[in-house]
């Protein structure tokens, strides 16, 4: 025995109940998901993301009126940074909730920064804990790859419904998902890797037959499917250069964090169209990213609205990068061609924190001619 | 949020009961452990290990008298290869038990090789299934890194106690764990990586203070402990060159698969001594490996005893490689010096499939002078 992971989380973190919603096994979810956040190394990675840090810092300190004398809840405080900023900005009381052992480090950090009289670190999951009062502000950095991977926003919605005052403010207040056609040489590379892997399998089948007397060829199809998924259907993390975006970016989901429900985000469906903006190029796939906004609320707006975007950037981007869905083979397109996209994303039945994407597209050439409709399945794992 | 794993499984797969034995959460264990074996890619990796394959092939086909007309149980059959060989060698009936979905592929493979009348593939864990009869042979490839990682042998013991006839034979029949002093430049590399990581942390603390107004220095100690564990205390997979072994290898555990109990392997303790065999070299750590033997049993011995060793080899070794426990700093030693080792390995409280190692050593120079005793903790994760 003994083997190493070549990717693809086959982990069973949920069981699907008869009505199709997922019943989460807490122990499995902890093993698969939360454990990562118990490492200071990961906290440091996130705390080193300047775009992320600056956006939250500005959102708090340029909108102190939302914090001065107020009660704040930080959902998934991690090392405690957002709770600390909230306190430094003048909050009267901050509840900092963290499900992992990182809570202990957050407590130390709060004390070292002399804010233990304002910040109360609570180790537990937001679904289980209780608070002695409702809060004026919920602040949280809950965004996963392509916004919704990790499904952590469910916990923020739960926190809002349980603990936010009717007049309360969400930080961030809004979120959007974007999709754009891209070009990328990675599509060729992944296809080569897949083909090489299948060549290697063929050699393996031949050798196993001749050396060991066992005919493995019946497994060629399932092996090929497993490897196709791994090489061609898994979405990829990528920090795209803006130059790689070959057409207009479109919004596929808008979320008002004050009113959205879990039902609203459990599936994302969009029919959008994008126009190619580059001359004679290749459509190699689609890039997906998100932005969030700190606008306060209508009745109590931000003094200074702040945006955190994870769009392709010449400045190097964020630790979220973009999620890239590659096409095999790519399609030659031209300035003015239109790409009609039929996008749908839902949670993996086996692990509610991972996503399945169904991405159909048609190319309408500027000549008016339609290329055939193509559908692809992808996995955000 | 979103972070990537830099190593160290903090996964909680077991809870410890009051008597110190681990109660395994099956769902978590599946998510953490079994899922890996559901990928054909991993099966292929194991099936491509020539040393492993040849040993099992020879053990079966050079000892057909153990198989002809007999009933066989294959524990953790994976793709089904050992069950197929057992049938090809003449077994009357083979029960091939597999806990993961790989059972479906095993069933296809059995059919494609026209052995469905002999081999019955059963999807389930050995602890849960029942068989209609006792068996003459239990065959299994249960060995993890350094033999006992994965703790899969527990299931083989369970199978033996439940299903082996009193006259039955175990394949393999015996196993041994080895330890030897080694030299390796990786010890310097790991220390550099650790130091670099801590330098980086210091820069991070300074920047977080000046840019973001938060003093992180209180986390320097826990961060350093986390990174020390990651860089310096995790044992490493390595295929050592025999030249890197600088002293005599010693056996630290001998197992008779026919009689051993889980209590016998839950902890491995040994006081051994090794003599340095190289002139003026460095003791950089210890390498651990194992061998297993196919000897049949005393009353029914193998016609041709076969050995499978994972010792350092000029022929490139096995997919198990060796587990390396590195010392920081290394110690200069010379031909004739004696290394007295106090070795202890037990299961991680958080995941019974991972191991904690306590390794103490003293160097007795050939002059008679003793260097001070040093103790190290390691993690096999």
From TrEMBL, chains A, B:
Enzyme class of the recorded protein, top EC level: transferase
Gene Ontology cellular-component terms listed: nucleus
Catalytic activity reported: L-arginyl-[protein] + 2 S-adenosyl-L-methionine = N(omega),N(omega)-dimethyl-L-arginyl-[protein] + 2 S-adenosyl-L-homocysteine + 2 H(+)
Domain of life: Eukaryota
Residues covered by the Protein arginine N-methyltransferase domain: 192-364
EC numbers: 2.1.1.319
GO MF entries: histone methyltransferase activity; protein-arginine omega-N asymmetric methyltransferase activity
Keyword terms, alphabetized: Methyltransferase, S-adenosyl-L-methionine, Transferase
Gene3D superfamilies: Hnrnp arginine n-methyltransferase1, Vaccinia Virus protein VP39
InterPro entries xref list: Arg_MeTrfase, PRMT_dom, SAM-dependent_MTases_sf
Pfam family, one: PrmA
Any one of the GO BP annotations: methylation
Binding partners and assembly: Ring-like homodimer.
Name listed for the protein in its UniProt record: Protein arginine N-methyltransferase PRMT10
Phylogenetic classification of the source organism: Eukaryota, Viridiplantae, Streptophyta, Embryophyta, Tracheophyta
């Amino acid at each position: 025995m003994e083997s190493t992971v070549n990717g693809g989380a086959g982990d069973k973190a949920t069981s699907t109940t008869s009505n199709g919603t997922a019943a989460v096994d807490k122990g499995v979810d902890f093993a698969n998901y939360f454990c990562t956040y118990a490492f200071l190394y990961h906290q440091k990675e996130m705390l080193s993301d300047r775009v992320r840090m600056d956006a939250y810092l500005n959102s708090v300190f340029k909108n102190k009126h939302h914090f001065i004398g107020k009660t704040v809840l930080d959902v998934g405080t991690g090392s405690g940074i957002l709770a600390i900023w909230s306190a430094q900005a003048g909050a009267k009381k901050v509840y900092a909730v963290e499900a992992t052992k990182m809570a202990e480090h957050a407590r130390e950090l709060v004390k070292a920064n002399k804010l233990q009289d304002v910040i109360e670190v609570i180790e537990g999951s937001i679904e289980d804990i209780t608070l002695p009062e409702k809060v004026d502000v919920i602040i949280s950095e809950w965004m996963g790859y392509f916004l919704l991977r990790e499904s952590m926003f469910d916990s923020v919605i739960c926190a809002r419904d349980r603990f936010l005052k009717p007049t309360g403010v969400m930080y961030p207040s809004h979120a959007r998902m974007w999709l754009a056609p891209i070009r990328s040489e990675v599509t060729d590379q992944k296809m080569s890797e897949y083909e090489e892997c299948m060549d290697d399998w063929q050699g393996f089948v031949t050798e196993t037959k001749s050396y060991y007397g066992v005919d493995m060829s019946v497994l060629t199809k399932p092996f090929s499917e497993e490897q196709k998924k791994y090489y061609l259907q898994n979405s990829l993390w990528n920090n795209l250069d803006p130059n790689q975006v070959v057409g207009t970016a479109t919004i596929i989901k808008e979320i008002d964090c004050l009113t959205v429900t879990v039902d609203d985000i459990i599936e994302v469906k969009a029919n959008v169209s994008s126009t190619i903006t580059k001359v004679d190029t290749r459509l190699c796939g689609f890039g997906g990213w998100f932005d969030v906004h700190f606008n306060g609320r209508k009745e109590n707006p931000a003094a200074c609205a702040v945006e955190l975007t994870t769009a392709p950037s010449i400045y190097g981007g964020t630790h979220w990068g973009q999620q890239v869905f590659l096409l095999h083979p790519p399609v030659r397109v031209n300035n003015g061609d239109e790409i009609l996209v039929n996008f749908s994303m839902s949670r993996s039945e086996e692990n509610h924190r991972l996503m399945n994407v169904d991405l159909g597209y048609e190319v309408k050439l500027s000549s008016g001619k339609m290329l055939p409709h193509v559908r692809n399945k992808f996995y955000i794992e």
